[in-house]
Specification:
heterodimer; A: 838 residues; alpha+beta; Aldehyde Oxidoreductase, domain 4; eight-stranded mixed sheet; seven-stranded mixed sheet; 31 strands; 29% helix; globular; B: 503 residues; Ubiquitin-like (UB roll); Enolase-like, domain 1; 2 domains; five-stranded antiparallel sheet; 18 helices; 20 strands; 27% helix; metal-binding (chain B); oxidoreductase (chain B); 2Fe-2S-bd_dom_sf (chain B); Diverse_Substr_Oxidored (chain B)
Amino acid sequence: MTALSQRPANPIVGLTVSHESAELHVTGAALYTDDLVSRMAGTLHAWPVQSPHAHALVTGLRTDPALGLPGVVRVLTAADVPGVNDAGVKHDEPLFPDEVRYFGHAVCWVLGESLEAARLGAEAVEVDYEPLPSIITLTEAIEAESFQGAQPTVSRGDAGAGLARATHRFSGEFEFGGQEHFYLETHAALAHVDEGGQVFAQSSTQHPSETQEIIAHVLGLHNHEVTVQCLRMGGGFGGKEMQPHGLAAIASLGAVLTGRPVRLRLNRTQDLTMTGKRHPFHAVWEVGFDDDGMIQGLRATLTADGGWSLDLSEPVLARALCHIDNAYYVPDIEAHGRIAKTNKTSQTAFRGFGGPQGMLVLEDILGRVAPALGIDPTELRRRNLYQRGQVTPCGMPVRHAERLTQITDELSERGELERRRREVEAFNAEHEHVKRGLAMTPVKFGISFNLTAFNQAGALVHVYKDGSVLINHGGTEMGQGLHTKMRQVAATALGVPLSFIRLAPTRTDKVPNTSATAASSGADLNGGAVKNACEQIRERLEEVAARTLSLHPSDVRISGGVVTGLGTQDTIAWADLVRAAYFQRIQLFAAGYYRTEGLHWDASRMQGEPFKYFAYGAAISEVEVDGFTGAYRFLRTDIVHDVGDSLSPLVDLGQIEGGFVQGAGWLTLEELRWDTSDKPSRGRLATQAASTYKLPSFSEMPEVLNVHLFERATEDGAVYGSKAVGEPPLMLAFSVREALRAAAGAFGPAGHMVDLGCPSTPEAVYWAVDAARRAGREAGDGGASARSMAPVGSGTGGNGTGGNGAASGTVTPSDAGGGNGTVERELAEPLAPHGVTE
Amino acid sequence: MDPIQVTVNGEVRAAAAAGPHTSLLDWLRGEGFTGAKEGCAEGECGACAVLVARPEPDGTTRWVSVNSCLPPALAFDGQEVVTSEGLGRAPGACAIADLHPVQKEMAERGGSQCGYCTPGFVCSMAAEYYRPDRTSDPGDEDAQTGPAVVGAEHAADHEHGPNGFDLHAMSGNLCRCTGYRPIKDAAYALGRPEPTDTLARRRDEPAPAARPTRVVTDAGEFVRPAGLAELFDRLAAAPDAVLVAGATDAGVERNIRHLRPPLTLAIDRIEELRGLHLGPDHIELGAALTLTEIETRLAGSVPLLADLFPQFASRLIRNGATLGGNLGTGSPIGDAPPVLLALDATVLLASAAGEREVPLAAYFTGYRESVRSPGEIIRAVRIPLPLAPRTAFYKIAKRRFDDISSVAVAVAATLDGGSVARVRIGLGGVAATPIRARATEDALIGRPWTVDVAREAAAVMAAEGTPLDDHRASARYRAAMLEQTLLKFYEENHDAPALEVTR
């Protein structure tokens, strides 16, 4: 076996290749779970009966009216479950509930000969509800102390002492919204009982092994009686890590009970109203800085909105707490976490997995307070970056911390930061109604599952007699290019051209006990396993070749499908070597295995080294804001990002750009709104369609987008020196929101602190602009009024934040206990009270 | 009647099994075509996009992209549809890939990640690839580009490729994976179709004629009448029939709200509803012309409409949507009514009994209600000439492409010697119907066009209508936007000196 990170000569990894299914994608021939329906005769279709209450007891359920309709075959209810009536791993998610806990919760499922029959059947099912009080907002949950799960604390040093020695102290609140995954392919499952009597479920799942386990426990079967296959997903982003299980279990239950294939595909409305999303968070914080802007102490309480059940909320919260420092050294810190229990969808994994939420808290703080410190926000961030030798609050050394400074320096140069800063200043001086903003933000993101056991993977590699290679591994393909990378890894490890390698769909009967394809770990873990399997085979083949070539096995070289050796001109074609090996009765297949070394984590103390390494990056974004409306444009973004030595540059570039735009969507555009009124529709998701929940379109991509992969970045701890890339780039989008803050601030006087709602929609930006202008007017004819104010009419009263649900809270500078002149200036700063409600 | 048939990728298929409530998408997927996907079922994501052959005024054919999730399959009786499978050949068992130029660019440049939206993007991109008036001319050579360009002027700079590709062609396609840059690069790298390209050559022949269709099932009835007379007869017999052209609203009602109207009448190819006449004192726009057809044929001659169209939903929607539909549904957040109100448009209502002309300002009577009687249809919209010289359309929404307005404001003003001689302001999103901002108009007419008058009028405008809080915006923001857009109109339409100097 060779070292994990060491690349042989002429590696296939590192080459730019298209997505392995690209030709199938563009022709429409790539099959997704629901594309298989037309290939299955006699398939039944499933439709849910969804609760019209946020919280209620189910006191009666009459299915007869549905069963009397033509085409309705069966109504699945709790009484049909032979095993455990639960869809989760925490046993808090009844599959057929007798108490509905959110608006849209599925009570039962109707199976029909056609989708239309099932839908009509579901409309005919009669359910009696006894409504119960509900908790919808985070504020309500905090007031009612409605929490679930563990309440961990990350701490180091003495936060109180850190704050006490700070000469500048601020405190505030910040509430920000979640995010719908909006994978283009909604959840889908297609189950049947196969010719061997086993339950076979096709599922759009990031976690086939757990889907298999949940199907088995719902049906009262053993795992070996259930096989789950995932051909590919039309996007996952974490939304298919836990959420597919119950849906696949429903389809499997229907298949077992009716003896016919059952297809369950959520339409977009159902997907939005039934499945979990990124956790919204609320934070209260206190922070202190010294006169140089160095962070001295941070005390924070983060409350994640977990929804109706735990799902992955505990590990999401843990990752948020482990990332509240982002890229900055905070010497004394105390961060508490808790999970609100609310009557909403059960929030779940979403690209970044709490990391973005934790990091956003500190980035928001820095952006807000920089003007009061009198330090440019980019400079404030730069000064506080981790330095070599420093350790995170969780006790983990920040290996390669110097890369943060190297990356931001390189980015400043590539992004022409200084020149453009001057240009933006000049632009803003010239334009009264349009302002531009420029911001740079860094990313540091820990790679590995926090739960150590998940950091293992398997692979199965077959070499057939003709030399062709078939690989299977435990990871799933959701567009992230994992299969593309795995083919490149296998070709590199075996020494054959890429065309020799075919990859078969992910199935639980090929590789068992897999971890979710999540936490950006797919290539690290499965790549390690594929490499391991290939090297087992290769070592056996090298012995065969050594005999043929009369060499020592270590002197055999296999590259590009040609076998040769040191000191010989003789060559053997790959296929000939494989055939010879077969006749010598050499095993031509292997199971590969990989476990990440060196991890440990004590969840009770929130201390340890949970991550193999950190991924680093930074972005500069420039935006333009229209002062009349708050509407904005993303002019340019420059990114330098660390992917180690890239396994597949086109794939990594796609992950960086796509993650960035998705992050920008979360922070600016995408807004989940629940009905918080006392009407019967309380708890209903108001944004439950593509027409009301807006994700980025072409109009939200930066007009100029330059991405550069950080060079000479070999990561010793990962396959072929690469780094994980799935999640970290999402957080590069902080630069967009901070640029919006800068642009809004440019409408006000120097030193104005900008409180910006999140998501920072045009409305939220408008209110920030409005507040900045008001600050300018209140500053009177002093120095600040050199900036001319845009006309503001009389029609809008009051001070505004985003104003709607996911709005921000307050920032209050607090006395640091001395007669410090700077602090007095802060206290004199006119800080409007920011009413969240009108 | 002929058997019910749809030509898909050059192959004629029997389509009689499609019911009146079967979308083109569901029918295609039932036939085993997997390229078109359902992403949202309401015409917002474009994963279901396909190409259809549509007639051009000169007798040729244009390949037009539409959302297949919205129109009924039966509306394509006798028509030609092309899906992503029909553009190029996929690799497979005993098959070597033979990709269409659009597919090749998308595949090689990383234009697909999960691939689910990709066939829809490919179809939208192919329609633009084949657009006959796509020219490589980058436009005005003196035009500024890059960061020197401010505000709305960015559009021209960044939304057209050097090959004439209009990015708006894909404004109705959503991708959640790529961040769009590689898709844009793929689009801008496209050349011209080869002379041997069969779809390019197909453009030279006439498009399939519309043919009368009638299907009756237990679930309802679908009829494409042979002409206006038959339409009036059927409508008189069943006044609650649903009229569909592009079905961009009716399709959503069917998919999301599960409406199953007993009778659907397809009117999109009735010639009397498809006229476009430029008269000496008015322009008449047929109610069943698609917005794209109007946009193309007016070619900017009505600047306020030219402002409207790129902001009206997406290209995929505009290829099906009509003015008749936008007025007929009577939504208070439709984007055409504010513009047509500002243009002082009238609506021509027709029935078997004859025709009448109603000012649009008197057309809406309540939430989704109008003066249109049962049995009446909207035949056309008239815009009086001359047009006001100063116009603007402000759409307040979260997203610039393909969003629904929280507030829409259209202004058409005539200034005379520094005074406001005439002004019409149409508003959407601030009342149960689209409204005229009459109090604001009164505050402006006859007054000098100064910043003080503009501010005074803006304050009046802020109090127009009865804006509500909803998921798109707060009432307070809507009111603020009414005020701010008038100030913005002033800023854009007064001669120097600038505002701050006059303060």
